[in-house]
Amino acid sequence: MNKGNAESNKLSQLRPCKHQVAGHLFEEGKAGSLVDDSGHFYKPLQGGPRGRREHEFYEAIRLEREACAERCKASGVLSSSRHVLIRKKLLGGCTGSDYDDQSKCEQACSSSGRSTADEERSWHSVPFCIRNAVLLSVIPEYYGVLKAGGRMLVELEDVAQHYRRPSIIDIKVGYQTWYPNADPSYIQRCQIKDEQTTQASFGFKICGMQVYRACQRGYWRASKRWCKALQPEAVNKALLRFANNEAGLRPVDVYGGPNGAFPQLQQLAAWFQLQCDFQFYSSSVLIIYEGDATSAEDANVSIRLVDFAHTFPSQGQKDFNFLRGLLALSATLSNVLCLDYHDCLF
Ligand SMILES: Nc1ncnc2c1ncn2[C@@H]1O[C@H](COP(=O)(O)OP(=O)(O)OP(=O)(O)O)[C@@H](O)[C@H]1O
Ligand SMILES: [Mg+2]
């Protein structure tokens, strides 16, 4: 089969993604995302710089991965003892602390006494795939782009593919969704949205969710309007609702425990404390679990990072906006663990 035929064959097998919980949706008359039977997810790239940036982000990761694989082949895989040394060197002095505000956060991240330039040199002295192993484990696999009519689709791993009944929540992280050198009118629009939602005050916003309800044998889906109208005092309840599948799972099974969302977010935050490769604006953390699970072991909770339309290479700066949002989200989840989940009825 030639390349053109293979592509049109592939395109004919795509169908709308049933489990997309936020973003551009077919049901709202927009070009939504698609999936196929091979476990791939196809996101239409937006026109202009947004689509270009997301494509460039995935391409940059692909090139770095290839370069790392080549280097490993040439020099033998890094030994695990060297790996441990590298981790120690990177983590030196950078432990959890009080991250209420930006300056405390910056202080805590550089409490090693080293200058920012030293830290950056140290970070970049480690091969990309090793220093960014945590990032690589949470972003979807990338398989390239596909042309569909006049649109470009970015072909990714479908992160919900291994779940029978995926319960998914999309949480946009960061106290601001705008980046400093954006168009002033774009900044103003974002600032208004951030102030009107929990983004600016909490450092995160629930953009969408679907929860499998075992009793109903179906999903409860939060509409965009429901998410927009969510008041700060209702956020805990919304998070409790997400963790309640009516089949016996408790918030502690989804958020706590050794395999819950909380320790996974902590690991991602530890990477953010060190990394100076990227700045992420408007990206989302997805939390996914098995909706019909009856125990923490079956819940198979995973966190993923998506949406890189506003991701930029960093000029050696740490991404405190995203890091602080992530820590605020972790703190909220750990509070939610202690609440009475029977409170939250549908
Ligand atoms: N790789 C993936 N696998 C499965 N579902 C995904 C994946 N990436 C995103 N999704 C689903 O699609 C939703 C929207 O994703 P995303 O934010 O990337 O797109 P978007 O908001 O439509 O695009 P943009 O914000 O760039 O305009 C997510 O909330 C999630 O439900
Ligand atoms: Mg989005």
Describe the structure.
The chain is α+β, with helices and mostly antiparallel strands and 346 residues long. The protein has a domain at 166-343: Inositol polyphosphate kinase (D-amino Acid Aminotransferase, Chain A, domain 1, 2-Layer Sandwich). Helices cover 42% and strands 18% of the residues. The protein contains 15 helices and twelve strands. The strands form three sheets. A five-stranded antiparallel beta sheet has the order 1-2-3-5-4, with helices on both faces. Strand 2 and strand 3 (40-44) form a beta hairpin. The chain is globular, with a radius of gyration of 20 Å. Residues 91-98 have low confidence and may be disordered. The structure holds adenosine-5'-triphosphate and magnesium ion (MG). Adenosine-5'-triphosphate is lined by residues 20-24, 33, 41, 43, 46, 50, 140, 156-160, 168, 170, 208, 284, 286, 306-307, 309.
